Description:
The strands form two sheets. Strands 1, 2, 3, 4, 5 and 6 form a six-stranded antiparallel β-sheet that branches. This protein has 16 helices and eight strands. Strand 5 and strand 6 form a beta hairpin. Among the domains are: 3-161, no CATH class; 228-271. The chain is α+β, with helices and mostly antiparallel strands. It has helices spanning 3-7, 11-24, 35-41, 68-72, 75-81, 85-103, 127-133, 179-188, 192-196, 219-226, 232-241, 245-253, 255-265, 277-280, 283-287, 293-302; strands at residues 29-34, 57-64, 107-109, 138-139, 146-148, 152-161, 202-206, 212-217. It is globular, with a radius of gyration of 21 Å. The chain starts with a helix and ends with a helix. Helix 11 runs antiparallel to helix 12 (245-253) and helix 12 crosses helix 13 (255-265). Bound molecules: cobalamin and iron/sulfur cluster (SF4) (2 copies). The site of one iron/sulfur cluster (SF4) has 12 residues, from helix 10 and helix 14.
Amino acid sequence: MDDKTSNTIDFAAAREAIRSYSLKRGAVAVGICEAELVERIAPPGFGPLAILPGARSVISIGVTGCTRGTWKSNAKVMTFIGNSVGPIYRASFGLSFFIEKTFGYPSIFVPPHVDPEYGARVPIQSLKLHAELAGIGARSMAGDILLHPEYGLLYYGSVITEMPLPTDPPMAENPCPAPACVELYRRQGRTPCQKFCPVDCLSGTIDDTGEIDEMVCDMARCAEMCQQYENMPNIISDAITADEVLDREEALYGAESQAFFYKVTSAVGATHAQCFECMRVCPVVTGAPQADPIRMGEAARKA
Ligand code: B12
Ligand code: SF4
Ligand code: SF4
């Protein structure tokens, strides 16, 4: 983009157009932060400049989690329909094209996945860091999952762009821990997410003022729990190492594998790593004003 063209752009109006495009595509929250700020916090090689050398801004968008009915269901059902990563990745992919086409600045959809060079736990970019700095989530006691006071649990997608856009500040206040969680912690020494995590992988402390003092999450244990119903590598490994034909067939065509392959072939977004137990008991996730689709519907019908 040459200076002459960029001088004709109204960046505040562009920001609104980006916001409006994202909301139309299903996002409920949109925030923007400076690429330079992310670059300073992310480890070397994991900031925006690593994937777009001229990066100026990072746009983070969020879609809501589940319906009220889904939260009432069991853990197994939630592995099919609990997350919303598909829609958010499609919306952010579209946004990268929208910015290039409308404003002419090179933009890129951030791959949300892990970096194959560094193993199963290291992402190419931290979507949580983008969302946190762009002001659409704050770190919680539940393994640093970001929470939003209006929407509870959001799933995030990001776009990095060379466009210099007006930014948003990080959230001034953290909705975690909720007052009810502080109360439970004072009485029992544990918050709801810590208490109900099925593999006890969350710990940490709340200080005298009711703020997060320390958060600890055993990610290996959490990952094992998240992958209990669908573990592609296990299926393949069991099939390769089976000595007997029947064992091999069980590995490939047994009930668990069938369920997994159904999900993959019917393009269900939630094909790996799903556990929602810390979120199911979180008052911010289920009680935030806009987190409940029934209440959202009532408000819309009244309007
Ligand atoms: C790998 C991964 C997992 C793994 C391991 C989790 C882990 N944290 O190690 C497993 C499979 C266990 C998992 C589980 C879940 N996940 Co997950 N997961 C990811 C993924 C791909 C990377 C997370 C990660 O490792 N980040 C690196 C850490 C260290 O980043 P960070 O805390 O922001 O970084 C801090 C510093 O370390 C440093 N830093 C900055 N950048 C980087 C980059 C790197 C590489 C490193 C090391 C450090 C670093 O700066 C930050 C300063 O505070 C992200 C998508 C993404 N690309 O970000 C989704 C994501 C974090 N998962 C998500 C969710 C929702 C879940 C689950 C609830 C599963 C589910 N039901 O959908 C559980 C929750 C578990 C929990 N209690 O946190 C959401 C979180 C949304 C939110 N509201 O916060 C994300 C953002 C996906 C999305 N598109 O929305 N997940
Ligand atoms: S996602 Fe499941 S295993 Fe991981 S911290 Fe939450 S409740 Fe525990
Ligand atoms: S249950 Fe939710 S609000 Fe309460 S401490 Fe855990 S993450 Fe925070």
